[in-house]
Design goal:
alpha/beta, Molybdenum Cofactor Biosythetic Enzyme, Chain A, Molybdopterin biosynthesis moea protein, domain 2, Molybdopterin biosynthesis moeA protein, domain 3, six-stranded mixed β-sheet, 8 helices, 28 strands, elongated
């Protein structure tokens, strides 16, 4: 298969991806879940005219002449209580958030009044509706406040609670099975053996998938032997919406992942993306199930799942913003590459960290950009994209970037 451009690969991965199902959860369990319903205001917010200050509610019509104005004070309105009636020629003591008494059309801050002979005195006439939050000022009754496809976060959870919604309908979590392959793999902390490596990719990919909203099942490592690999893949596919394999995705003698999946019936949309790192990434389907094959090198696997896996997980929840957004930033540092056999016109996605210089945010390139580097992603804030048509980045070049925090939920 030919190498496909990144945008084409992303389009293949997201083709036909839609919400898998709906479930209802308690609001306290809904953080980072994607709404599957519109949430409307059942009542106006605020429900009644409210005071924005501690002070005194009164009628402007009771202030005759040019002032100063003197009014008797009768009654008190507190938040959560019913306001008293407001007699003509009187003011009512009122507190922040309390309902404004019928007939009152202004609230005067307590700092703007004085008392003489037990009467409230105002020096100047206040402006109409001053310090009053009008009924429905924040939300009109029936207004759609949060739409289906919104990923909930702390502020929107608070808004849902303010709408009097203790439970919400959200998208079902996509079920992701992670399968690492390779004879060299061992669990972190287990006995070292010559040529072995502690497996790290599943921790990164699993965390990214969970943050994007998936339910993740990490399968036991699979060795590079056809029968054992086929058995492991068949088991991983059981009850999975998406199988993500890590390692063995290239074309070497021991890269058996794609041939094994094809024997199981997987049809690949592409097997190779014109990007670096991450070139061997492949994507396919088995009926309604999806398969994403990631390279084994840590930076390659991490980048490929950031750019292709996370949008897929989001799209399978009906997330209205599955794609990463881009922003152009000036770059600190330089980068050189040779256009030719080792590049094939691929786009480079370079790890960088944000740095403020002269009041302007810059992207400083990480010194280590190899596909096997495990440190550069740990220090990175953004990915700087270098078009395959360019062979260099010079200090100060302005290039598109993808913010990793956005991709990491």
């Amino acid at each position: 298969m030919r190498l496909v451009p990144f945008e084409e690969a992303l389009a293949h991965v997201l083709r036909g991806a839609e919400r898998l199902g709906v479930e209802e959860v308690a609001l306290e369990d809904a953080d980072r879940r994607v709404l599957a319903e519109d949430l409307e205001a059942l009542r106006p917010m605020p429900e009644h005219d409210q005071s924005a200050m501690d002070g005194y509610a009164l009628r402007l019509a009771d202030l005759e002449g040019d002032g100063p104005f003197a009014l008797a004070v009768e009654g008190e309105s507190r938040a959560g209580g019913r306001p008293p009636a407001l007699p003509v020629g009187h003011a009512c003591r009122i507190f922040t958030g309390a309902t404004v008494p019928d007939g009152a059309d202004v609230v005067v801050m307590q700092e703007r009044v004085r008392f003489e002979s037990e009467r409230l005195v105002l020096v100047a006439r206040p402006a109409p509706r001053q310090n009053i939050r009008a009924r429905g000022e924040d939300l009109a009754e029936g207004a759609v406040v949060l739409r289906a496809g919104t990923r909930l976060r702390p502020s929107t959870l608070g808004l849902a609670a303010a709408l009097d919604r203790p439970r919400v309908r959200v998208a079902r979590r996509p079920r992701i099975a992670l399968l690492g392959t390779g004879d060299e793999l061992r669990a972190p902390g287990t006995a070292h053996r010559p040529g072995s490596l502690p497996e790290s990719n599943a921790y990164v990919v699993g965390a990214l998938a969970r943050r994007a909203g998936a339910a993740v099942r990490v399968c036991p490592f699979a060795v590079d032997e056809p029968a054992a690999l086929e058995q492991a893949m068949a088991g991983a596919l059981e009850d999975a919406d998406v199988l993500v394999t890590i390692g063995g995705a290239s074309v070497g003698d021991h890269d058996l992942v794609r041939p094994t999946l094809e024997r199981l019936g997987v049809v690949f949309d592409f097997a190779g993306v014109s990007m670096r790192p991450g070139k061997p990434t492949a994507s396919g389907r088995l009926g309604g199930q999806r398969v994403l094959c990631l390279p084994g090198n840590p930076a390659s696997a991490t980048l490929a799942f950031h750019l292709l896996g996370v949008p897929l997980v989001r799209a399978l929840q009906g997330d209205d913003a599955p794609h990463p957004s881009t922003a152009t930033l000036p770059v600190l540092g330089t980068h050189r590459r040779h256009l030719g056999a080792n590049c094939d016109g691929r786009d480079d996605f370079l790890r960088a960290r944000l740095e403020l210089r002269g009041g302007v945010t810059h992207a400083r390139l990480a010194p280590k950009q190899s596909s096997g580097a495990v440190t550069s992603f740990a220090e990175a804030d953004v990915l700087v994209r270098l078009s395959g048509l360019r062979d260099r980045i010079d200090e100060g070049d302005i290039l598109p970037t993808l913010r990793l925090s956005e991709l990491e939920g």
